Structure formats: C-alpha cells, structure tokens
C-alpha cells in the first residue's frame, strides 16, 4: 500500500509569484485535504476535495485554490505569494467525505519559503 | 479562536516513565478526537483516536482518555521510549476537517 506523497519537498519563491504543490493520495482513498502549518503552530485547514469537487474550506483567501484529478491526486495553487505564506503545506488523504470518523493520513509536506 | 488547546509547549520525561500529554477543547459538538505524532521533516503520523461514546481507548503503550464534561483529553505513553521524542498534536474532528492544537514537544531522556 502506497502512502501519501507530496512534491516538491522544498520550494523557494519571491513575493508576488505563483506556486503549485502536488499530492498523491494513499491507495484506495478518494478524499484529499490540505493544511498549512506555520512555525510553532498546529496545522490549519485550507480546504478539502472529495471526488474532484471542493468539499469544505477554511479561512483562507481565494488566492489559495485547488484541484483534484480523476485518480484522486490533488494540487494546491497559491497566487500572489506573500511573506506570511511561508510554511509547511501538508496534504492528507482519507476514504469518504469527512463526516466524522475517517482518519486522515498525512504526507511529508512541502516546505515553502517566500522571500 | 483556538478551539483545541495544548497548553504545554514542551514536556521532558525519563525513559521508562509515563508521559502524559494534555489537550482541552471548547466546542461541545466535537465527537471524535485523534492524536498525531510528528518527527522533524516528516508529516504527522496517526497514533490513536477516541470517539465521544467512549472514555478510554488503548493501543499498546498508548492510551487516550476523554473527559467530556471537562472537555479534556489526555494521551498516556507507558513506558516512554527514546523513539517517542517528537511533537504530539491533538486534533478534533469537525465536518470536512481536523482542528489541531498547537502541539507539545515531548523529549524522552535516557
């Protein structure tokens, strides 16, 4: 069974640029959630995709957007990067839309630095 | 507003002793809780969970206790081992998302 994978591992961008992060979900999972983890904080929910549609969104501006593909892999896109976007971005996969007890399994994350 | 709080940023425990990590929550609608462990440069790893219909769940050296009236849960690790040194996150399940605490860094001393 293949776990959750993310690419790239690290990324450095400058303010105002755009970035795309990628995630492959665990085998058999159809739901992908994205989280932002700032230094010294717990992960914060960005949004979730279930069967290729957005299924919930946290308090993040519209310049954070995403996609889910038919194979359930996913992308997180961030436009007009700001310094505060520097963080670890985590992808998590699970089976079924989040209605209660589906455990989410996390990838290793992408460390984004905005200069 | 911080709906899930881990008030101890760090905890140091001697190898072989019990480690107790605490977590408080404010939203009484939360009915499922999870603990994750995170090593540097890795994603969070699921450890153990508990439903609000239970007050205790065990898995090997790990036990989670839930006190719904106090809106408090705790993770007990017995005996503590050096490999347990990591950051531990408490999370509450809400529709479509997990709500995480800030984490507690556990250090196991030989």
Description:
- The complex is a heterodimer of chains A (115) and B (110).
- By secondary structure, chain A is an all-beta fold.
- In chain A, 0% of the residues lie in helices and 50% in strands.
- Chain A has no helices and eleven strands.
- In chain A, the strands form two sheets. In chain A, strands 2, 4, 5, 6, 9, 10 and 11 form a seven-stranded mixed β-sheet that branches. In chain A, strands 1-3-8-7 form a four-stranded antiparallel β-sheet, with no helix packed on it.
- In chain A, β5 (44-50) and β6 (53-57) form a beta hairpin.
- Chain A is globular.
- The N and C termini of chain A lie far apart (38 Å).
- Chain B is an all-beta fold and 110 residues long.
- Chain B has no helices and eleven strands.
- Chain B has strands at residues 4-5, 10-14, 19-25, 32-38, 45-51, 56-59, 62-67, 72-77, 86-94, 97-100, 104-109.
- In chain B, a hairpin with a 4-residue loop joins β7 (62-67) and β8.
- In chain B, 35% of the residues are buried.
- The mean pLDDT of chain B is 95.
The greatest inter-chain interface is formed by: A-B, 28 and 27 residues
Name the shape of chain B in a single word. globular
What oligomeric assembly is this protein in? heterodimer
Low-confidence stretches of chain A are: none
- Largest beta-sheet characterization of chain A: 7 strands, mixed
Distance between termini of chain B? Answer: 38 Å
Query: How much strand content do the residues of chain B show?
Result: over 45%
* Radius of gyration computed on alpha carbons of chain B: 13 Å
- Low-confidence stretches of chain B at least 5 residues in length (pLDDT < 50)? none
What portion of residues of chain B is helical? under 10%
Task: Please count the beta strands of chain B (DSSP E, at least 2 residues each).
Answer: 11
Helix content of chain A: under 10%
SSE sequence of chain B, one letter per element: EEEEEEEEEEE
Mean pLDDT of chain A: 92
Let me know the number of strands of chain A: 11
Structural category of chain A: mainly beta
Radius of gyration of chain A: 13 Å
Strand content of chain A: over 45%
């Amino acid at each position: 069974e293949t776990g959750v994978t993310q690419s790239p591992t690290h990324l450095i961008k400058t303010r105002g640029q755009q970035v795309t992060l990628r995630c492959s979900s665990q085998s058999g999972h159809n739901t992908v959630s994205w989280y932002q983890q700032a230094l010294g904080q717990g992960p914060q929910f960005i949004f979730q995709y279930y069967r290729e549609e957005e299924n919930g969104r946290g308090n993040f501006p519209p310049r954070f957007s995403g996609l889910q593909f038919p194979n359930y892999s996913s992308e997180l896109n961030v436009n007009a990067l700001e310094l505060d976007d520097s963080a670890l971005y985590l992808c998590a996969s699970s089976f079924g839309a989040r209605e209660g007890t589906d455990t989410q399994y996390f990838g290793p994350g992408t460390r984004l630095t905005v200069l | 507003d911080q709906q899930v709080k881990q008030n101890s940023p760090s905890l140091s425990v001697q190898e072989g002793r019990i480690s107790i990590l605490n977590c408080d929550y404010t939203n009484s609608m939360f009915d499922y809780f999870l603990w994750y462990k995170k090593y540097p440069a890795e994603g969070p790893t699921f450890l153990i969970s508990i439903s609000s219909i239970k007050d205790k769940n065990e898995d090997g050296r790990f036990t989670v206790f839930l006190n719904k009236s106090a809106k408090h849960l705790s993770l007990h690790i017995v005996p503590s081992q050096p490999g347990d040194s990591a950051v531990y996150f408490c999370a509450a399940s809400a529709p479509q998302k997990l709500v995480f605490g800030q984490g507690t860094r556990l250090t196991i001393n030989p």
